[in-house]
Amino acid sequence: MSQAKVPVWVNVALIPFINIMLAFLVSALIILSIGENPIEAASYLIYGAFGYEEGIGYTLYYTTNLIFTGLAVSIAFKAGIFNIGGEGQAYIGGLGVGLTCLAFDSTMPLYIMIPLCIIGGAVFGAAWAYIPAYLNAKRGSHVVITTIMFNFIASSLMVYLMVNWLKKEGSMSLRSREFEESAWLPYMHEILAPLGITIESSPLNGSFIWALICCVLIWILIWHTRWGYQLRTLGMSATAAVYAGIENGKVTIWVMLISGALAGFVGLNEIMGVNHSLLLNFTAGYGFAGIAVSLMGRNHPIGIVLAAILFGALYQGGSELAFEIPTITPEIVVVIQGLVILFSGALEHMCKDRVESLFIRKAA
Amino acid sequence: MFEAIILILDATLRVSTPLVLAALAGLYAERSGIVDIGLEGKLLGSAFAAAAAASVFGSAWIGLVFGIMASVGLALIHGFACITHRGDHIVSGVAINTIVAGLTVTLGLDWFAQGGQTPALIGDQRFVPLTLPFADALADVPVIGLIYSELLSGHNILVYLAFALVPASVWLVYKTRFGLRLRAVGENPHAVDTAGINVAFLRYRAMIICGILCGIAGVYLSTAHNAGFLKDMSAGKGYIALAALIFGKWRPIPVMFACLLFGFLDAVAVRLQGVSLPGIGEVPVQAIEVLPYVLTILLLAGFIGKAVGPKAIGRPYVKERG
Amino acid sequence: MTTPYAIELRNISKRFGAVQANKDICLKVTAGSIHGVIGENGAGKSTLMSIIYGFYEADSGDIEVGGEGVRIRTSEDAIRYGIGMVHQHFMLVENFTVLENIILGAEGGALLKGGIENARAELHRLEQEYSLDVDIDAVVEDLPVGLQQRVEILKALYRGAKVLILDEPTGVLTPQEADHLFRILKSLKEQGVTVIIITHKLREILASTDNVSVMRQGQMVADRVTAQTNKEELAELMVGKKVRLTVDKNEAKPTDVVLAAKDLSWFDEQGIERLKKVSLDLKAGEIVGVAGVSGNGQSELLSVLSGISPLSSGEIQFNGETINAKNSKNAQQMRDLKMAHVPEDRHKMGLVTGFEAYESAILGYHNSNAYNGKLLLDRQAMLDECNERMQKWDVRPPNPHLKTANFSGGNQQKIVIAREVEQNPDVLLIGQPTRGVDIGAIENIHEEIIKLRDAGKAILLVSVELDEIMALSDRIIVMLDGAIVGELNAKDADERTLGLMMANALNDEVKEGNQA
Hints:
The complex is a heterotrimer of chains A (364), B (322) and C (516).
Chain A: H1 8-33, H2 38-51, H3 53-78, H4 86-104, H5 110-139, H6 143-166, H7 188-192, H8 207-224, H9 226-236, H10 238-243, H11 248-264, H12 266-275, H13 286-296, H14 301-324, H15 331-346, H16 348-363
Helix pairs in contact in A: 1-15, 1-16, 2-3, 2-14, 3-8, 3-11, 3-13, 3-14, 4-5, 4-6, 4-11, 4-12, 4-13, 5-6, 5-11, 8-9, 13-14, 13-15, 14-15
Chain B: H1 2-31, H2 39-57, H3 60-84, H4 89-112, H5 135-138, H6 144-152, H7 157-175, H8 177-187, H9 189-194, H10 199-225, H11 237-247, H12 252-272, E1 276-277, E2 281-282, H13 285-303
Antiparallel strand pairs in B: 1-2
Chain C: E1 5-16, E2 19-30, E3 34-39, H1 45-52, E4 60-65, E5 68-70, H2 75-80, E6 83-86, H3 98-103, H4 112-130, H5 145-158, E7 163-167, H6 175-190, E8 194-199, H7 202-208, E9 211-216, E10 219-225, H8 231-239, E11 257-267, E12 273-283, E13 286-291, H9 298-306, E14 313-318, E15 321-324, H10 331-336, E16 339-342, H11 346-350, H12 357-360, H13 379-392, H14 409-421, E17 427-431, H15 439-454, E18 458-462, H16 466-472, E19 475-480, E20 483-489, H17 495-502, H18 506-515
Parallel strand pairs in C: 3-8, 3-9, 6-7, 7-8, 13-18, 13-19, 16-17, 17-18
Antiparallel strand pairs in C: 1-2, 1-4, 4-5, 9-10, 11-12, 11-14, 14-15, 19-20
């Protein structure tokens, strides 16, 4: 029984490309329906994202967050778990980073603060993922609902903490005091200057490097270690995993902990790298966007980086767009994200089967 | 004291109404084998459509029609992805929720220029409380009078509709041919197919019912409970309804009680706002906000253990090859 | 009726993507006869029957029912033309009652009440006419498998089936239940119903059919009158070459007890006792076969011995270790103790169908130093070993990078068996080793199992195919309802005795025999 083979590039490049084009097409129709010109909108978007150096910096700064949340959703997906709690885990991870900064910024130098904050963000983010993970592993509780609930709880918790504990004394704004400079993660333009490279200043900072490092580490973990083998087996066939002696409950939990930790690194970017203080709502939908990023990136770190750049461009371009055409809200970016999830995720078979059969017919 | 209880129960009914409707909607979808995380999106979408239409056309009833249409449309998209294209049910639900969250604000800004909200609804643009016959006359009768005139009377028509739909659903699901087939297709779609029944059509019909019920829930949110649409106003009710559905083991009457439980605790919590409890001090407003979410988690974790849903749920139906 | 044929197929063809499942099939089924369709797995029999039943539509060709040309596009059409089907995996809603299952699709009205009353009357009549006794208010999942099959038959008859197709009907029955089924089929035949049986079991064809058609690789290759053919001819037609149906083996030379299990009990999630104080010993150099209809605790026995499920009570002594409820070992730890397990379901357990073959080839042994450096997987080592083994065991195609799902059943099974056997275990547990495997490859696998025994391994073999059990085992134990109800040497076993033990009817028949 022979089966014609579909070339690899079709699955990895062509079909995702078609999916995203469909998402853009529908978005264009929506923009048309509110009476604006989609081509004009697209050009502002592209210009805002890539047209000038500062814009590129902003794009990559958004990309950093999306790499973290995209990796977080991906590693859970690979183990068969749908972690929608990225938003809450990023928020609480940021809390961890912020608390670490507030606690040690006057006593520790930068090169100690960085690993401390990485740990702080990871531990807090992982902790926020722990309860849904535990409940799913031990009680079979629906992880999608519990993680979404934890997102809502995180929101309220942060407000409570901010209002009652964290905000700067004597100030009305909901923000902690500013950190000492030893807790400021250097900007990319600051890092590159001593190397003789000058770029426009932008929020892009050293956490971008950490994001890329995480990509490599996660890639190695999933594809080149026995723990990765375990989680991939669990994701493909829970029964085969039990047969193989893999403890599914334990794997579920540690995968979710890593997932939460990755989402928590958003705090490294936002709190330590850009805002230099703890504030509210810095997660701005990155958690949910991570879902779109991981689906589009086919759960592979390279795909995730590319998808994260695309969505980072949408965020930055979207701001530019909203500035130039005030009738289009930044929420249009959320719509595009949703459409990408729809076409790349839920409707992935729609194009896949038709395109594949084209190739099989050619070969036969 | 008695009066306080009646008032709390009264509030319970009002708060539970969208949950009951959304949970029933989820029941039809899930009994047919489709996981519907998108209840939230349908709630939000229909709330927006209803408020927008009510504002533009000046009538809550027209709002109802548009709200239901929006929700049914979203339900059909979910059906299209899951039934016809064998897509992942959860991914599809998340996609729809995300699209709706963005689209409501985008369209809202374009149509009404109020930052994404719809204009506040007044008069006929809202569903108003109905007074049951003799409510005023009976108001003074001890105990029963209060129950009748406060608790039972004075709700808007959607509340009565919601609770009437519960026994109606019991009848539809357990006493009719459609109900038998619905329950069968969620357990073993192959059995249904080999009996000569079209599985896809059956599931689409279940999704349409789901859409209608969710639509009514969303309409209630923006034209009855509230006076207009606000960004993200569904605030997780769609997910809470899902938890109530699981807790109620996919049967209409237990599900209704689960929703009432949520409503009750919500109503009690609101009363506690600003009140000092012994030993704890003033209850922070955020604690009251998170109560429904925490309760959802407790329900999913504690009491149920492993609730067994319809056997074929979440799995796309593919005819097996010989 | 101008034609003697209840069903006639002419040049039926069906393609799925790149696979030609049926090619120019012609079939003539005489009305009021029992007609067998035989062929290996993948020969296309189920596809053909699915076309007759309207599950799929043929790409080309004609179908005639009772002499009339018809188009069957859906199961509804097939039912209308009087065709009914009893599937291999029952199409029943487990938590419905028998009655609800039967009326599903034929409710007789939008409200259930009226339809149910009519159904009761009609079903009563059918039960009498065909002696198909079953309690119609029982919930299906509480019924034993044999009775569930009767529900399937009643379902078809309720809709007025004049042609009844049965797909692999005896896979889940004891020999006695199978005999009972054939009696029911004869009685149906007497009432004018036409029966088509699809099976890969030669014995069934010879025992119960009037005519038989043989399929091979998507085509119809022969038609025979059953009385004029035999096992050897049919096997040869099925495979395309001469096939040996027996296994050569020497006398076993068992030595020490390697694994001793005492009073093993296991309760499932619902608290039902699935293993009831099972005790058995496995000796090196011996094959112990576990006979019994599926669902009587054999799967649970494998599960508990392999470490997949922890014991509820009882004790296992194995390689110096004592395993019980307090000191349980998971599947990984059992492997470390030198136990290997070829599971009953290779798709769900034995392999990860989405992995490439060389990754499936280390399933269960992924933590071993053979495949791991200090931190990383050693993919080169994995590939080298996989290549080696594919050559040794003749796995086709010998491509370690091919997705596991794309190998044929027999080759997938070889990957699993190779993996477990090459670990050189002391005890090997095997479940359904030749399920879904072509006749040609079965011979091969049986030989390997015998070789293992002769190399001094202790082997526990679970199989629903009595032929296989009798051919391979040195000792046979029979399980019924979670307990061992009989044990005998293979030499003393015959199908009848085993069958009676399997149904726990041995004593009853002896009694009847005495009274006769």
